[in-house]
Amino acid sequence: MTNRIPKFDVAVVGAGLAGLVCAKQLQQADLKVVILEKSRGVGGRVDTRRFYDTCVDRGLPYLEIQGEQTQQLIDRLCEPKIVRPWRGTAYELHPQNDWQLSPLANRYIAPQGMSAIAKFLATDLEIWRQCRVKTIVPEGKTWLLTSEAAENFPSAIAAKAVVVAIPAPQALALLESLTSTNRLLEVLDKIASVRFDPCIAVTASYRDDLKPSWQAVKIIDHPDLAWVGWDSSKRESSKQTILIIHSTARFAQTYLDVSDLQPAIKQLCDRAAQLLLPWLDSPEWCQVHRWRYAFPRRFLEMPYLATTVTLPLICCGDWCGGNRVESALNSGLASAGEVLRHL
User: Which of 244, 241, 233 is nearest to 284 (CA)?
Assistant: First the structure.
C-alpha cells in the first residue's frame, strides 16, 4: 500500500503554533514536510473569524512578550506590520470592586486579526486542510497515516517521522491504539496526565456610539467571568463596538456538552453588565464559541514527548514545558531538533 501513496520525511498533525514552527524548522533543513490540519484555517486557538464587515479574535486576543521566542516572533511580525503595540488602558478587577491598572506594555495586537500571525508562520508550508487524521500505525520503515480528507487530498500518506502537535486529549485519542510496548505506554501515560480548562467565548456587538473607557479587563476570582476585551478597538476600520467575553473554566464546564448555548450567552452578557457596563446586557447580535481545550491547567515539564520505538514519534504543544505561547514556540522548535537527530 505504501508504494501507492504520497511519501514524506515528516508528517505534522496539527497547524497550531507549535506545529507550524516545527514544520518550518524541518522544511528549512531540506526535509519534505506536510501538515495535516482538521480545520479550514491554521493557528489553532490563534483564531480570527469574520462577521459582517469586520473580523473578531475569539481565541488568543493578543501576543505578549513572555521570553526569547515570543520576542523574536514579535520582532519578525512588527517589520511587515502584522502586529503593533496595544495602546490604551487595561485593568484587573479584584473582589470588592478593586480596580487595578494592568499595563499593556509588551502586548501586541494584529489589526487584521490574530490569525494573520499563523498565516505568516504558514507561508510556503505544505498544509492539507480539512484533513482529520484517524490512525497512525507503523508499516515497514515508515508511519502510515490515514485520514478523513477533503476530496483533493489522498486519504493516506507515509512518513519517516510523525510530530503530533494537537491538544493532549486529542493526541491521546489518536495514539491510544499504539500500546504494543512499555515505552509507548509511558508516553501515553504522560499525555493522559495533562489537563485542560475549557472556555466559552462570546462575541457581542453594540451600537457604535457605545464604547468602553478601557481596552480590556481581567476579572479575578469571579465564578463566571474571566476576561472582557474591546476587540473592535484593535481595528480602525470597524464600524461596530465589539467585545469579547471569556468565561471561567468552571462556567464553561457547565456548558461543555450542551447543544443550546443561548443561556450561556445571556448569562455572560448579564454578568458583564452587572460588573462593568450596564449596556453590555443588550447586544445587537452575538456569536458564541466553545473552546474545549482552551488553557493547559496541568502541563508537562519537558518541551516534548518522544519515542523511537519502531519509528520516531514526537508530541508537542503549549502543554509541553509550560502553558503559554512561549511554551508552544519552544516546544515546536525542540521537537524539530529531536526529529533532525533521527533523520
Answer: 241
Q: Is residue 169 part of a domain?
A: yes
* Nine cell digits for residue 62: 493578543
pLDDT in tens, 128-138: 999 999 999 99
Find how far residue 141's CA is from the centre of its chain.
32
279 DSSP assignment: G
- Answer for the pair 215, 230: CB distance below 8 angstroms, yes or no: yes
Picking from 14, 84, 16, the residue whose alpha carbon sits closest to that of residue 327 is 16
Q: Which residue is it, cell 522544511?
A: 27
Query: For residue range 123-170, what is the model confidence (pLDDT) as tens digits?
Result: 999 999 999 999 999 999 999 999 997 778 889 999 999 999 999 999
> Residues of 277-287 as b/e, b for ≥16 C-beta within 10 angstroms?
beebeebeebb
Question: How far, in Å, CA of 33 to CA of 24, rounded?
Answer: 9
Lowest mean per-residue pLDDT among 53-57, 153-157, 181-185, 225-229:
181-185
Q: What is the pLDDT of residue 180?
A: 64
Mind listing the pLDDT tens digit for each residue in 245-269? 999 999 999 999 999 999 999 999 9
Tell me the residue ranges of DSSP E strands in the chain: 7-13, 33-36, 48-51, 54-57, 63-64, 84-85, 90-94, 98-101, 107-109, 127-128, 131-139, 142-149, 156-164, 195-206, 216-219, 225-230, 241-247, 285-298, 305-307, 313-315
Q: Which domain holds residue 171?
A: 7-40+129-194+299-341
| Dihedral angle of Cα 173, 177, 181, 186, to the nearest 10 degrees | 10
Tell whether 287 and 222 lie within a shared domain: yes
Is position 22 within any domain?
A: yes
Residue count of the chain:
343
- What's the rounded Cα separation, in Å, for the pair 299 and 149? 31
Question: Per the structure, how many domains does the chain have?
Answer: 2
